[in-house]
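>> Question from a student workshop board

For tomorrow's exercise we were told to take the sequence and the ligand below, predict the bound structure, and bring the output to class. My setup keeps failing. Could a helper post the expected result so I can at least see what it should look like? The ligand is adenosine-5'-diphosphate.
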Amino acid sequence: MKVLLAASEVHPFAKTGGLADVAGALPRALHALGIEVAVCLPLYPKVRRRSDVREVVAEHVSCPFAGESRPFKLLRTTMPGSPEVPVYLIENPWMFEAEEQLYGTEPGSYGDGHLRFLYFCRALLKIPHATGFFPDVWHLNDWQTALVAPLLRAVHRNDAEVAAAATVTTIHNLAYQGVFPSKDLAHAGVPSWFLQEGKLLEDGLGNLLAGAVRFSDAVTTVSRTYAREILTEEYGNGLEGLLSWRKDLLVGIVNGLDTETWDPSTDPNLPAHYDAGDLAGKRDCRDALLEESDLQPTDGPVFGCVSRLVDQKGLDVVLPVMDALLGRDPSVRLVVLGSGQPDLEDAFRDLESRHPGRVHARLTFDAPFSSLVEAGSDFFLMPSRFEPCGLNQLISMRYGTPPIVRRVGGLRDTVTDGVTGFTFEELNPGALAEAVDRACSLYRDAAGLDRMREAGMETDWSWARSAREYVQVYRDAIDRRADGGHLDAVMQDLPPEPIEVELPELADVPSGYPRDVLTLVPFSPDTLFCFWELGGEASAARIAALEPDARPRIRYRLTLTETRTGEAIHAEIDGTTQQWFAKVAPGGRYRGELHIEAPGQPPQRALDAPEVRLPADVYPEV
Ligand code: ADP
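>> Workshop helper replied:
Here is what the output should look like for this input. Compare the format with yours to find the bug.
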């Protein structure tokens, strides 16, 4: 069986979260089971800087995008440590290298993500012919690769060799669905047949993940409990109806852990090593953690936390509970490693200043330090509001650090209360405090604590078990693809003629999706694609503040400035026009500003876009 696993991040090439861990480890476990597996991700700046990315498979693969062909170069390397697993890299510097970040400049809204990742999906579908690797199964992950499933069924249906494949879509976190105005999808070259409810639209907006759920042959998510939870209104993020309709295709498979990377007996980031048979090294890690964190030595419990600082993780509840505990018991220590929402960062900074020498908040992404927190803490805090699977609780158990977790999603499936950690039901300070108190009691019972540590360390968290479950899902997907009945409802009105990309007229900002955003995307060597929306609260307030008779006479002006020469290009635009393909100098660096001008008033800057770089042309036309 041949499987092509596509993801927007793959450890160790590019990582922002748990998806990268899965996409890095599962292929190796599949290979060990005899599956022929290849991996594909975009070539980001960080990937280009790696020394192992050298081999060119194809110089120039044409790829349809936004009404024209935007070719890419296809490179190949292998999974570090697994030379039998090829990794294909899609190189298109305009799409993937104009910025350092993976997901664009606009935090939260993903800025230009729809362009990058729709392009990525288009490019993915070119891989079989470019490489000769024709997968039996496409394993797609999250919204960034979701479009492959519908495109394969409709646009590529007449390419028998490619279209024979089945698709499996894994939802790593339903909170991220790839929601974009349908006109954004149209402009990125999604054929209009898809842009209807029941295909790629969900309540009037393009929803790439919903599209994949409709067109895939199997859908998985990353724990059994989360697979049940997402059928409910509380956890379904609006897709509970669609997922319930597809529940026969939905399977929960808990993530494994990359037990080679995460191993306290070899982890190069630890000052001392240990295993379940001899925990002495863990004590040294604890001392090193306190020292490295500038915390006072203690014989009381050390609580650790490594997390993105976002609402999902429930850390707002940790704050009052730990504040009270630290106030009550001067022997307690807390180390928090994480970055994210400014309000949470401020709150942990504040907690640190209230308990000097006893709380350390390191508000950054720091992989080596995360190992030390996992190994050096006595207990690990993870009270998530929702948690599709969670890796940190697995890492902490493997490192002999019992986790304190809410009984939700993958946390429920992996932590056994009183045996490998502590669990609690409701997310409130009282329930968390009760679990933390139980941990503090166990801390005073050295033999009991060692038993819990060993139980966690001896559990099999490897990928081998999960990989076997994925192989079964692949088989089921292949069978279902052969039968095809599950797609009848979504495919019934597909026109017999090939569906092609049409570039539609510019459309208004749809209501219900208000944002203030200006994004610049290098589109070709001398073209900068600019798009903007003035639908958010800030611009609404600005316009409301104007004299009523001035409002209809507002002018908008978009300025692109070459940041080194200071040379500016201006465009007068009207409020509803949202895209502009600007002719610019190849190799230039541009930032953008959008001003609102009302008669008799000085221009107001409404939006700005940070600098983007136009890479030099590496694809001469052939
Ligand atoms: P999610 O994918 O929702 O962020 P997971 O628990 O599934 O949560 O995976 C998080 C991964 O990211 C883990 O490997 C964790 O160690 C890592 N991580 C999160 N925040 C940080 C940080 N600030 N520094 C280092 N690693 C981090």
